Amino acid sequence: MPNTPTNINQVISDYQTGGADKYLLRKSADGAYTMFKDEAALIASGNGILTPNALRDAREGAYSPNGAAYPILENAGVTVNSTGITTCDTTAINGATLRIPVVYTDTSFAIKSYFSYGNYNYVARQEDIMRQLNEACKIIRTSYDTNCINLLEANKNQQQAANLFGYFTDSGANEFQIDPAKKETMYNNIHGQFTRMDYAGVQKKALGNPEHATSVRELYAQGGANDFNSQFQFRSDMLPEFNSEEGFSSDVVFYETNGLVNGAGVEQTFFVIPTGTVAIIHANDVEKYDQGMLPNGTELSTQILPGLDGVVWGVRKTYGCDDNGLDFEQWQFENRTAYIPPYLNNIATDVAPINKYIVAP
After folding, report:
1. Is the pLDDT reported for residue 240 higher than 70?
2. Residue 226 lies inside a defined structural domain of this protein
3. Residue 17 within any structural domain of the chain
């Protein structure tokens, strides 16, 4: 006779992170966000898209009633005499001054945890809270990446006809098109093209999709022992890394994102910009979230979340009880973000520093 009635219960271990569900929180390649953060880090040294003072004002003005702006001084349109006759009389010319407002985007989310959640449960309440935080941060990073790509797209160079450099063609969508048969020297031609556009002498940053990353690695691998050496385009003895934190030193720093999707018939899609062209700026409401504990039990504070280093969130912590008599703890997180593009007098006529490329026949 079987002994089924006396079998032990199913054996279940306590929950620990890093188990069978670890891939549910896998991070997408979000190199656009990383590139914008790296660009913003240049501001403090005076090499970024804003001055250090403008960066401070953008952060402090994120929650002020009138926001923040930074000044622009346009070229005055000076006329240079080259006739060989000294000109004593000149017409006074003043450069136009402009005030560019900083545009902010709000990001917020909330997590909630019942105090009874971990009772008689192999998953502890604290582990559930951390899972919610990690999931939120994963989604937020992807949204930042998407917004950074959208800024590049909105501010990309529209002057294709005069800058094809005898190598590129015009895709018809404000992109420089590269024939796949010629891609072995694409970065050599990109360097020359940027010089032709008067963006010479500065390191560049390239943001591409995974298809572009595989192509660049292949080009770099074609070294001196091969019939065709394409390695000269990178001017470095290090393999290009698609993660700037690894300290890759070259004419081009590469970033990889899943946010760039190839169109029909396109093999690769990527942007190239001079270093110090864009930035992402985060801010929290200092006056609101420095108040600590309020008389009603609400606690206001700030917090840095996992996977979002350098982003300080305002946190509103509250307690409550639902209709079933279950007590809960809730956190509301809030932050404002500004995406800073390069200034152009007229993007329809000026050569922008943001070039978009596709590899397609």
Report:
1. no
2. yes
3. no
Distance separating alpha carbons of residues 163 and 159, to the nearest angstrom? 7
Q: pLDDT per residue over 19-43, tens digit each?
A: 888 888 888 999 999 999 999 999 9
* Separation of alpha carbons 20 and 24, rounded Å: 9
Residues 81, 89 contacting (CB under 8 angstroms):
no
Domain assignment of residue 208, yes or no: yes
Domains in the chain, number: 1
Q: How far apart are CA 191 and CA 245, in angstroms?
A: 23
3-state secondary structure the chain: CCCHHHCCCCCCCCCCCCCCCHHHHCCCCEHHHHHHHHHHHCHHHCCCCCCHHHHHHHHHHHHCCCCCEEEEECCCCCCCCCCCCCCCCCCCCCCCEEEEECCEEEEEEEEEEECCCCCCCCCCHHHHHHHHHHHHHHHHHHHHHHHHHHHHHHCCCCCCHHHCCCCCEECCCCCEEECHHHHHHHHHHHHHHHHHCCCCCCCEEEEECHHHHHHHHHHHHCCCCCCCCCHHHCCCCCCCCCCHHHCCCCCEEEEEECCCCCCCCCCEEEEEEECCCCEEEEECCHHHHCCEECCCCCEEEEEECCCCCCCEEEEEEEEEECCCCCEEEEEEEEEEEEEECCCCCCCCCCCCCCEEEEECC
Report the 10 Å Cβ neighbour count for 142. 18
Pairing of strands 268-274, 292-293: unpaired
Please check the confidence at residue 291 and state whether its pLDDT lies above 80. Answer: yes
Rg (CA), the chain: 27
Q: The tokens of 81 are what?
A: 């005499």
Is residue 161 assigned to a domain?
yes
Residue 73 has pLDDT above 70, yes or no: yes
Domain containing residue 228: 25-45+108-361
Asked whether 148 and 339 are in contact (CB, 8 A), the reply is: yes
Condensed to tens digits (0 to 9), the pLDDT of residues 87-96 reads: 776 666 777 8
327: β partners: 321
For residues 205 and 56, give the distance between their C-alpha atoms in angstroms, rounded to a whole number: 25
Under 8 Å CB-to-CB from 6, ≥6 apart: which residues?
none
How far apart CA 297 and CA 167 sit, in angstroms, is 66
Size (the chain), residues: 361
